[in-house]
Structure formats: C-alpha cells, structure tokens
Amino acid sequence: MVQRGKLIVATFASSPPLCFTDDKGQLVGFDIDVAKLIAKSMFGDEKKIEFVTVTSEGRWPSVLSGRADLGIASTTVYPDRALRVAFTRPYMDAGIGVLVRRDAGVKSLTDLNNAKFTLANLSNPQMADRQKRFLPNVKTLTFDTASAMFLAVKSGQAQAMQFDSPVIDWYGKENTADLMVLPELLGNVQNNAIFMKPGDFTWWLYLDTFVQELTTGSRYAEYVELYQKWFGRNPPPQRFYTGAR
To answer: Mean pLDDT by 10-residue block, N- to C-terminus, for the chain (245 residues)?
Structure first.
C-alpha cells in the first residue's frame, strides 16, 4: 500500500455519526475522520485514501480478499469475529442502544418486550442473540443497513431498533418529535475497533500503535477534537501521568 501511494478503507455509508453519506454525497463521520488521520500519518496527506462502502456482512470479505487494507465501520469486537479478522485495540467504547417510536408508549426495555411490538435488527448473529436474550417476546425484522432499520422505525414498520449507541443517539437527536432513545443499554458496554486481514504483524502493529497514541497518547488532542465534533462531548480521559516533574 505504501508503494501504491494510498490507503483503501472499507466502511459503511449509513451509520451516522460514525460513517455515512452527507447531503453532498460525501462520506463523513467519526470513523471516516479516524481513517483520514491514518492516511495522513502514513502519507502526509489525508486525501490519499479511497473508501469502499460495504454492508454488514460484506465487511469481512472486503479485507480478507485484499480489496481493502483495513475496515473501520461501526464494528464491535466479539471473540468469534476475531477468528475471522484481526482487530486493533478499541478506538471507541459504545453500548447497544434502543430507539423507539414515541407513539408506541414504550419507556423501558420491559415495556418493549411485548409481542405487539416489532424490533428492527441488522443481519448479524450478535443482534439476533441479543434480541433473544433481552427481548424474547418481540417480533423482529432484519435489514442489511442501519439506515434501512431507521426507515422501518420512522415509517412505523417497526416500533424500535437496536444499534451502536452513538448511532442511536444521533437518530434520536435528529428526530426528537417522533422518536426517543431508551435510557437503558441493551447488554454490556462494548468496544469498536479497526479490523484487517490476519497474518501481517507489522501492519497490525502499526494500526494498533496508531489507535493507542490517538486514544491515550501523543495524538490525544486530535481524539478530543473528533469526539467534540461528532458527539458533542469529550472522550474518556487520557491515562493519568504519574511521573516525577
């Protein structure tokens, strides 16, 4: 890729505020800006990057086939996924939030766990397992993208959707008249990470080191700037320095 002179990155195009297409048709978001920082670190120019948009299931083939050098696509780390792809350390903590229609009269996960409601899921096994564990009584509809799930809720085809909390919070903020975010997370806090084809230790080490320095080290100021830009708040604090002065 160094010889090629650009970085090729797999991402989503419909998961605001992480990776989505704006009104001008440009890919934007927190994940997109992190990828541009990697390109700038490698080539001295954030524009030396090409994005390949993929679906949820298309993430893994994009890197395993060599079509993309890395993926950064609102992706949670799960042990079974680590059997297929290599992950860096997390660049962002997230939970799984639930967005509901206000006219459904749902105020909690307990209220939602009712056969009269339909939950929109993404087409991956983790979402299906989570629904069966925490909301076993709801009906479900499965979609390929977050935007399709959102449209199902917005149109009334479903009364709720589950997804990464930054995305859920974004949709809730942009549609406060009709939609709301439940106060409870659906399960535990989780980690989002960059993924790549396993086997190239040098490439993995570079990306993992970049994430470490961005989130806790020499590039933390840039991390703060991105968090404030896309989430309107500060990131988790940088590790405490205990050295002598």
So the answer is: 88 94 96 98 96 94 97 94 97 94 97 98 92 97 93 98 93 94 91 97 98 96 95 86 61
Cis before 17 (ω within 30): yes
Neighbours of 26 (CB within 10 A): 10
Residue 212 lies in a domain: yes
pLDDT at res. 94 = 86
| CA dihedral angle for residue 153, residue 154, residue 157, residue 160, rounded to 10 degrees | 20
C-alpha neighbours within 13 Å on the C-beta side of residue 223? 19
From CA 47, how far away is CA 31, in angstroms rounded?
15
Point out the domain boundary residue: 161, 181, 201: 181
CATH of the domain at 73: 3.40.190.10
Query: In this structure, is residue 195 part of a structural domain?
Result: yes
**DSSP labels for 188-234?**
S-EEE--EE-TT-HHHHHHHHHHHHHHHHSTTHHHHHHHHHHHHSS-
Q: Report pLDDT for 2.
A: 67
Task: Give yes or no: residues 198 and 81 share one domain.
Answer: yes
Expressed as residue numbers, the domain containing 150 is 96-181
